Every structure is written in C-alpha cells, then in structure tokens.
Amino acid sequence: MPVWLEAGGWGLVGGSALVLGALVSWSVRVPQRVVAWVMAFGAGVLISALSFELVDEAERLGGLGPTAGGFLGGAVAYVGANVLLARAGARHRKRSGGQPSEQDDAGSGAAIAVGALLDGVPESVVLGASLLTGGGVGTAVLVAVFLSNVPEGLSSAAGMKRAGRSAAYVFGVWGGIAAISGLAAALGVVLLDGASASVVAAITAVAAGAILAMVADTMIPEAFEQADLLAGLLTALGFLTALTVDRAGG
C-alpha cells in the first residue's frame, strides 16, 4: 500500500472520532459535566502526545532552532486565525453551550465549520508525517487524536444542537472534517517525503504549537468550567495514559 494512502486512512480514522462524538451527543443527552470530564481527559492526552511524540522528536530530528521557530509560528498562526473566527461567531465552537444560532449571528455556522477545520488539520498532518520514519503510524499520536476528537465532536455537536442547527449541518460539518483530515494526512506525507530533517522538524513543531494553542483556548476552558475539582485529575490521567501508550509502543 502506498504510504500516502496509508496516511490518509489513519487521518480518516482520527477524524472519524469527531463523527462518533457528534453521533453520541445527537442521539443521547449527555450531561455537560460528563462532557467536561471527557474533555479534560482528552486535553491531557493531547498535551502528553505533543510533548513526547511531537516536540521532543522534532528537536531530536532537526535541533532546537527549527523546533522552537516552528512551534511559536504554529501557535501564533492558530491564535491569529482563531481571533478572526471568533469575531465571526465561532469563539465557542467546542462548547456544549453558548454557541450562537444562525439567526442570532449570521455566518456563525460557516465560521464554526472553518474553525473545526482549523482545529483538525494540524493533528492530521502530524499523523501523516509520523509514517515517514518507516516505523508505522505514531501510536501515541493516533490514540491522542482519536481520544481527544471524541469529546470535541461530542461537546461541539451538543452546542450546535442547542443553537438550533440541523442534523444535516452537524454531520455534514463533522463528516467533511473527517474526510479533509484524511486528505491532510496524505498531503503531509507527500509534501514532506524527502524533505530535510530541519524542514520536517519545523513542520511537526508548527502543528504541535497549533495543537497546544487549541487545547488551551478551546478544550481546557470547557473542561474546567464544568468539571469542577475533577478537571485537574482527569487531565493528569489523560497525560499519563498517552505517556504509557507511547512508552509501551516504543
């Protein structure tokens, strides 16, 4: 199987967790506190994976300079794009409550969809890039992406439903994001295959910086607003789970 096709498949697997979370949220009324618990766990998983699988690996591969520059660039790019999307009505796109309806804020639906894409692409790129070493997909990164995407889809879909958006809109958004995630993973392999170690390190770090900015801006606020004192413990458990997967796979 061509490596780009394998990468696309794994990207689709990671993105499909968004659809799974949305389906659960649409079919069953999940208490906001439970959503927050899962969100806190997912945040810890992502923080662990980007620390040990992405940033650490990028620094080993290309050195501190490209890694630091890429990491900061990814965070700045994410925050800048997020500011523009927030002004268009997508500030609370991952929240299970507080999303504006299309009647309240025209164009907010499109902004939410674009924001979901902004959140998902960096994860998919690093999934694809993890195949370039020849050792198969990065297990810890795949687990982190999947486990964090479930609560993202669950929480955001709950907010969309409360804002009056239709099932066609909700599943159209998440199904489209899942498909684009597969495409982004495949493109990550195609574009980075044969690139220098410094370039691969920088691109990996860009994705890591964007992911960390996303976690701090969208996942952690939702988790700590609703999960009370358990949020910190669940985040730590998520971090430990991803670390354990990484070390067991290594």
What does this structure look like?
The chain has 250 residues and is mainly α. Helices cover 82% and strands 0% of the residues. It is built from eight helices and no strands. Helix 3 runs antiparallel to helix 4. The longest helix has 31 residues.
Radius of gyration, CA atoms, in whole angstroms: 17 Å
Q: Total number of β-strand segments? A: 0
Distance between the termini: 24 Å
Write down the overall geometry. globular
Number of DSSP helical runs: 8
Provide the fold topology.
Elements: H1 3-27, H2 32-62, H3 64-90, H4 108-129, H5 139-162, H6 167-192, H7 197-226, H8 230-249
Helix pairs in contact: 1-4, 1-5, 1-6, 2-3, 2-5, 2-7, 2-8, 3-4, 3-7, 4-6, 4-7, 5-8
Question: Would you kindly provide a brief summary of this structure?
Answer:
The chain has 250 residues and is an all-alpha fold. It has helices spanning 3-27, 32-62, 64-90, 108-129, 139-162, 167-192, 197-226, 230-249.
Keywords:
single chain; globular; 250 residues
